[in-house]
Amino acid sequence: MPVTARPATLGTLKKAIASGDVRRRSVKDEVRDNLILKLRAGDRLFPGVVGYDDTVIPQLVNAILAKHHFILLGLRGQAKTRLIRALVDLLDDAIPVVPGSEVHDDPLAPISAHGKALVATEGDDLPIEWRGRDARYVEKLATPDVTIADLIGDIDPIKAASSGLQLGSELAMHFGLLPRANRGLFAINELPDLASKVQVGLFNILQEGDVQIKGFPVRLPLDVMIVFTANPEDYTARGKIITPLKDRIGAEIRTHYLHSRADAMAVTEQEAWVERGLRLALPTYVREVVEEVAFQARQDRRIDRRSGVSQRLPISVLETVVSNAERRALIADEGLVAPRVTDVYAALPSITGKIELEYEGELKGADAVSREIIRGAVAQVFDGYFVDADVSATVNWFDNGGTVLLGDGLPATSLVVEASKVPGLIDLAARAGLPAGAPAPLVAAAVDFVLEGLHAQKRIGRTEAGGYVGTEPVRRPVTQTMRQAPAISLDEDDAEPGKGKKKKYYN
Questions:
Q1: Is the pLDDT assigned to residue 352 strictly greater than 50?
Q2: To 5 degrees, how large is the angle CA 124–CA 126–CA 132?
Q3: Rounded CA separation 38/59 (Å)
Q4: How many CB atoms lie within 10 A of CB 174?
Q5: 346 in the same domain as 315
Q6: How confident is the model at residue 158 (pLDDT cuts 50, 70, 90)?
Q7: Which of 314, 416, 494, 507 is deepest in the core (most CB within 10 A)?
Q8: What is the average pLDDT across 233-253?
Q9: Span 378-399, mean pLDDT?
Q10: Exposure string over 222-247, b if 16+ CB within 10 A, otherwise e
Q11: Domain check: are 318 and 404 in the same one?
């Protein structure tokens, strides 16, 4: 309903409801009805969430259609919070509330003493306030120090004393987060971190829809839809969801990491901050390597799979990769920022802090494990581009003693000049999707990809200083002098005790 047409008093609200201009319904009915409208219209549900169209979202839709409270269960970085926050779009634009009500009373059916008193006093002349959808979403991160008073409420003795009220009076109550979320959505993140006695306090709300405060006979039949999130690791590491509470949650929906690299790249592109004012040319193979780092880490036995590898890892890595390329371009006064595969190694600080190592990984160290993961990611992506490529000319040149020094800080023009000395290298770089007449920074990035790919597949070596060398020892012909070097004989008297009569040592 347009803002200008919204009823301003209780009397006009009643008329609008009678004519059908305003609908009265519970929160769960409201969310369900708006979801049905979106499904019939073919609208995209949960925009910004990628890779869940055939798995998580159908289960989530089923839970909403069934009017269930539900929990999203999954490892970190699996878009759980984004999903529950997107539920706000399924609420109406605004709902009418009693002005000044802490629990946002429905003017036609108030549940608080304050709301009932106002409606009884003002009648149809009662002014109406309208509460927007964003204000109807309340989120709480569960921590062990959260109390039942934080969620449900408590007696406020100061309010009781100053107003001359008895402690059992509802007007002396201080309402917690849940009553203040009345007629809206209430989300609790990381549910197992709540103390067991606090979880017990949620029983009546989930089953009966009401709260009782401090044992006093105060009953508030709340209209609220409650959603939870949890990490499976929390069941054993930090806490658990008590069984009676789990029994009252209508649906347990499992989230997952993205199955395809393309979906993961779409999420990273959506979330990463890479547009910074300078001209940026971000090669696809660099983005693929960044994403493959996360895929490789999730499969690595040295990394704790129970903890998971968040989608935030490739997002942070890509931002750091662009930053390293930006730094190089600024120093070299290049007008184009073109990230290279070697820039991924500069993003080690964005990797090591986001992985939890098993014992074997701890022995090796986070830096060493991360470098090996990057190398595996480069090899995987490189194989997709050069599986049928003839790299023998380039590899043989290195095996025969050729060396180039190409650090990640080398300006693009200088790198291209050095790469031109290597047979076949520039031609191989063109296979990485290099457009005709590409500027030097893009050519340099493609050359860097080829060399790093060959190194990752152990066809050439790389030094700590960024130089590329061969992996085979250089074969030199044995000289005549070396073949005829005389043997030096030791007589028995010169030999060590207990040894044979003579020993021969060769130059």
A1: yes
A2: 120
A3: 16
A4: 15
A5: yes
A6: low
A7: 314
A8: 78
A9: 94
A10: bbbbbbbbbbebbeeeebbbbeebee
A11: yes
Instruction: Name the average pLDDT for the chain.
Output: 86
Instruction: Mention every residue, 6+ apart, whose C-beta is less than 8 A from residue 269.
Output: 287
Return the bridge partners of 252, or none: 71
pLDDT for 217 equals 61
Q: Which domain holds residue 301?
A: 261-470
- Single-letter amino acid, residue 288: E
Spatial separation of the C-alpha atoms in residues 280 and 416, rounded to whole Å: 19
| pLDDT tens, residue by residue, 432-466 | 988 888 999 999 999 999 999 999 999 999 888 77
Q: 186 lies in a domain?
A: yes
Do 321 and 291 contact (CB within 8 A), yes or no? no
* Token code pair at residue 179: 């009553």
Q: Is residue 223 part of a domain?
A: yes
Q: Indicate whether 490 pLDDT > 50.
A: no
Number of neighbours of residue 126 by Cβ within 10 angstroms: 19
Q: Quote the pTM value.
A: 0.83
Relative to beta strand 70-73, strand 251-254 is: parallel
Give the neighbor-by-neighbor strand order of the sheet with 467-470: 404-405, 467-470, 460-462
Provide φ and ψ at 279, rounded to 5°: -70, 125
Determine the residue type at 166: Q
Exposed/middle/buried for 203, CB within 10 Å: 0-12, 13-18, 19+? Answer: middle
